Amino acid sequence: MDRSILNRPFTVDRQQGVELYGRLRGGKELLDFSYWAAVLTGSGRGVTVNDDEHLMYFGRFQWNLLGEDLGFEGSDIELHEKPAAIIAIAGVTNRSPYTRFSQSGGGSLVGFEEEEVGEYRVNQYNIETAFVYKGFSWQSEWHHKNIINKLDNDAETKLEGFYLQAGYLAHTSINWWPKPLEVAARYARYQPDTSLDTNFQHEKTLAFNWFFTKHKNKLTLEVSHFDYETADGNVDDKIRFRLQWDISL
Fold first, then answer.
1. The model's pTM
2. 62 burial class (0-12, 13-18, 19+ CB within 10 angstroms)?
């Protein structure tokens, strides 16, 4: 269960550039921080040059409030005997023809299809939390994004979204539960334009992960219910079943 409805509008995916990162430890668990700062092309995955003189700037600051950096993988496969948690805030600013990024590079969100050089100034930030303890895992993200059309009198659109997700390796408390099997659930909500009272998108997902070799080899079965409200007040309901075998080296 590695993608929610927030991925498409908010991810900046992979970018070429220079990054400074590290960890600050003050000798006590409560004084443990990780940080990232980067200057990037802002032109999408695999692009080594910038499309104009405006670069992408990124920063992230994370508090490892119980003395452990959890990294970027969910699920408590290690079965932490001591709880571990993080709280982080990140931000990015970029001016380019693009309002979204994916593995295919730069692209456009719905309503922003015109792609001229330097057309859009995009400012966004997110706050996230994570927690693991004895097979239980928790993740959350809250995103805010401003898209400013520099070629249309600085017309501005604001986007918001969040998700809450939890998983549990239930064999830690249920004897008959298979050891490699995790059950997980997620709720996500996305608003493509905060100036509209409707126009919400909702996702509810239930998933089962079978870990053959941790996250390097796993099978995921999930069922999702999507509830999309359009700008004119109509509602579009969908159910999706997905089976994914994920192998990485």
1. 0.91
2. buried
